[in-house]
């Protein structure tokens, strides 16, 4: 096990190197002069030259990459062109919002997805099974940016049940501890803020949960079905154990391995893929921040944000991999 | 679904040679026909294909034609609706139905182009990696791992951000992002096939590498590739609509579903139809390919059937 963990952690190094190279090279995709792209066509030659020098664009490419890597190793992603703020500072301000949204979404997705999957498997070919399969096929096909808008029309605009967008109402005060507002309001016993934060969170979290929910319910169903066919399940039934005990104590335990993996992988995708949901609900997370960088042609910020998310993404995948090997000793190196 | 007797009889040719053997393709098609989910998907896809091919004949209006007198008309069943605009109009007085029909054209083209890029480079990379193994394999698969280290939609957004927003660049970005799917799949299949006797036999007869790969090995990896390609259409259409929605793909006034949604978003309080219908189209098109892909998986790979 130790060897496996070490091997996997070490294999992260070339991947991260590759990611950094790819992110670095992206600036080469810009047609024409990057400095002109950032400052606009009417920028003066001296302003362009100054920006080129500041970004090191006047240096040969290997020097540029060397500098880029040098800064990266010190945890420095440069400064955002828009605000001249350190990119790492901006990222750490916004990342908690994305974490909160993704955590809420994965909780909803896991609870509902597993519930549907288990019922479908234990009542295979029932109406519930059929309906939930169709619903999850629709779920994986869902353009969530559209679903978000429709939910918004129904629940915010027409019914007025939940707020339209944002994380907190302007008139609510909250002492920020972790920057996860729901958690902060609990820590500080601020129940008005708690209610407000949860109310703001519900719609975006539900929107974001659709695709992982569908995926989780499908994997739960197939994993449970596979386990239920095994001999030891029949033995347990033959011993006279109740269906409930057999399903939830014996079968579910063994069916959990692939489910945990999928939940972990989906969570990683959510952290980076929440861009669309964040855009629709004006959720001030890292996805929206990167997108605004795209619109403002702040390529520094886009590169920094992308590098950060990719690093988080591969790290989560690594943790999932190790967890998987830990619960399932049959997996070894290779 | 249980295999019917006449189908199983076709599998190993009987000794007397009297029975007609069914080709694997026909066998798969027969199985596919019995899969209701796949048939539903196929019907949806065909409807969209017809819409795309015959858009000028079906659409009641020009998708770009503006009529300032008919701005924001609701659908026909609404009291203020107008039969000339069955699904209503947008804020430029453009007919929503016509735009949706032309939108099918764009989404189908995007699907074909993006999938073609991913399929071509993915298959090539996967086949070379699986066939030669060793260092080449290591290098190629490392590259694929790096592409997979980004959440797909983020990578597509970033690529387009740097290349400049346009439908063409969006298709390229989506193609690139999806290369690893095909590369991994083909690599695995090629490795599995490579060790088999028929490949070694052909090699002993002096067949060159390219011939071994493309004539002998790849045709035997087709089944999973077809499934993956079908599912790939679904995600390509979805990702393209997302990029256009964010203003990074098709640009206004192109009648693209995602771009229409972006426009409708500003009208969310006044014109629900401008948001609802383009979204339903995206959902249906993606669903169609997902249904067919699922059905094909069951039909082409009998081992996976439950």
Summarize it:
With 334 residues, chain A is mainly α. In chain A, 74% of the residues lie in helices and 0% in strands. Chain A contains 14 helices and no strands.
Tell me what the structure shows.
The complex is a heterodimer of chains A (334) and B (306). Chain A has 334 residues and is mainly α. Chain A contains 14 helices and no strands. The longest helix of chain A is centred in the middle third of the chain and has 38 residues, at 191-228. The radius of gyration of chain A is 24 Å and the shape is globular. Chain B has 306 residues and is an all-alpha fold. Helix content of chain B is 68%, strand content 0%. Chain B is built from 14 helices and no strands. Residues 1-18 of chain B have low confidence and may be disordered. Chains A and B meet through helix 1, helix 6, helix 7, helix 11 and helix 12 of A and helix 6, helix 7, helix 12, helix 13 and helix 14 of B.
Q: Which helices and strands appear, and what pairs or packs with what?
A:
The complex is a heterodimer of chains A (334) and B (306).
Chain A: H1 2-25, H2 34-39, H3 45-55, H4 61-73, H5 87-122, H6 127-140, H7 144-158, H8 181-187, H9 191-228, H10 231-238, H11 243-273, H12 275-280, H13 286-295, H14 299-327
Helix pairs in contact in A: 1-14, 5-6, 5-9, 5-11, 6-9, 7-9, 8-9, 9-11, 11-14, 13-14
Chain B: H1 5-10, H2 24-34, H3 36-53, H4 55-58, H5 96-132, H6 134-148, H7 152-163, H8 167-177, H9 179-194, H10 197-204, H11 209-217, H12 222-245, H13 257-265, H14 272-300
Helix pairs in contact in B: 2-14, 3-5, 3-14, 5-6, 5-8, 5-9, 5-12, 6-9, 7-8, 8-12, 9-12, 10-11, 12-13, 12-14, 13-14
């Amino acid at each position: 096990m130790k060897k496996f963990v070490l091997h996997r952690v070490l294999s992260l190094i070339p991947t991260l190197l590759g990611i950094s190279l790819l992110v670095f090279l992206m600036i080469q995709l810009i047609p024409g002069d990057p400095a002109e792209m950032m400052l606009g066509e009417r920028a003066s030659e001296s302003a362009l030259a100054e920006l080129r020098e500041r970004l090191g664009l006047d240096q040969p490419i290997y020097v540029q990459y060397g500098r880029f890597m040098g800064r990266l190793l010190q945890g420095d992603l440069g400064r955002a062109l828009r605000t001249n703020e350190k990119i790492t500072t901006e990222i750490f301000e916004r990342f908690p919002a994305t974490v909160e949204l993704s955590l809420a979404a994965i909780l909803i997705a896991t609870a509902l997805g597993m519930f549907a999957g288990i019922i479908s498997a234990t009542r295979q070919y029932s109406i519930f099974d059929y309906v939930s399969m169709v619903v999850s096929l629709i779920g994986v096909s869902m353009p969530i940016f559209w679903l978000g808008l429709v939910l918004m029309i129904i629940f915010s605009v027409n019914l007025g049940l939940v707020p339209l967008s944002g994380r907190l109402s302007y008139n609510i005060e909250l002492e920020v501890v972790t920057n996860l507002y729901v958690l902060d309001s609990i820590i500080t016993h601020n129940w008005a803020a708690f209610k407000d934060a949860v109310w703001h969170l519900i719609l975006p979290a539900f929107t974001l949960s659709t695709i992982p929910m569908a995926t989780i319910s499908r994997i739960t169903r197939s994993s449970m079905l596979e386990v239920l066919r095994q001999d030891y399940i029949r033995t347990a039934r033959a011993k006279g154990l109740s269906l409930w005990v057999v399903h939830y104590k014996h079968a579910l335990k063994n069916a959990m391995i692939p489910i945990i993996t999928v939940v972990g992988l989906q969570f990683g995708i959510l952290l980076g893929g929440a861009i669309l949901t964040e855009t629709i609900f004006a959720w001030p997370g890292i996805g929206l921040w990167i997108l605004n960088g795209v619109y403002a042609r702040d390529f520094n910020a886009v590169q920094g944000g992308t590098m950060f998310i990719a690093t988080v993404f591969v790290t989560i995948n690594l943790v999932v991999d190790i967890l998987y090997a830990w619960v399932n000793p049959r997996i070894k190196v290779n | 679904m249980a295999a019917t007797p006449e189908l199983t009889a076709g599998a190993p040719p009987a000794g007397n040679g009297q029975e007609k053997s069914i080709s694997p393709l026909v066998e798969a098609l027969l199985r596919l026909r019995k899969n209701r989910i796949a048939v539903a998907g196929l019907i949806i896809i065909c409807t969209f294909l017809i819409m795309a091919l015959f858009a000028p004949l079906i659409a009641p209006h020009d998708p770009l034609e503006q009529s300032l007198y008919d701005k924001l008309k609701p659908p026909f069943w609404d009291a203020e609706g107008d039969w000339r605009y069955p699904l209503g109009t947008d804020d430029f007085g453009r007919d929503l139905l016509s735009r949706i029909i032309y939108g099918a054209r764009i989404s189908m083209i995007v699907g074909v182009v993006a999938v073609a890029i991913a399929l071509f480079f993915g298959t090539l990379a996967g086949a070379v990696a699986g066939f030669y193994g060793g260092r080449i394999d290591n290098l190629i698969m490392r590259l694929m791992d790096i592409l997979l280290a980004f959440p797909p939609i983020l990578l597509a957004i970033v690529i387009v951000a740097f290349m400049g927003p346009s439908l063409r660049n969006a298709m390229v970005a989506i193609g690139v992002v999806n290369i690893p799917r095909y590369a991994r799949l083909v690599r695995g299949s090629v490795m599995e096939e490579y060790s088999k006797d028929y490949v070694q036999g052909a090699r002993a007869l002096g067949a060159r590498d390219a011939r071994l790969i493309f004539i002998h090995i790849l045709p035997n990896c087709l089944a999973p590739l077809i499934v993956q390609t079908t599912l790939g259409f679904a995600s390509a259409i979805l990702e393209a609509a997302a990029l256009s929605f964010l203003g990074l793909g098709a640009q206004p006034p192109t009648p693209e579903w995602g771009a229409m949604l972006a426009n409708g978003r500003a009208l969310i309080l006044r014109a629900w139809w401008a948001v609802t219908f383009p979204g339903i189209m995206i959902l249906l098109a993606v669903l169609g390919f997902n249904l067919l892909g699922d059905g094909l998986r069951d039909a082409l790979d009998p081992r996976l059937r439950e």
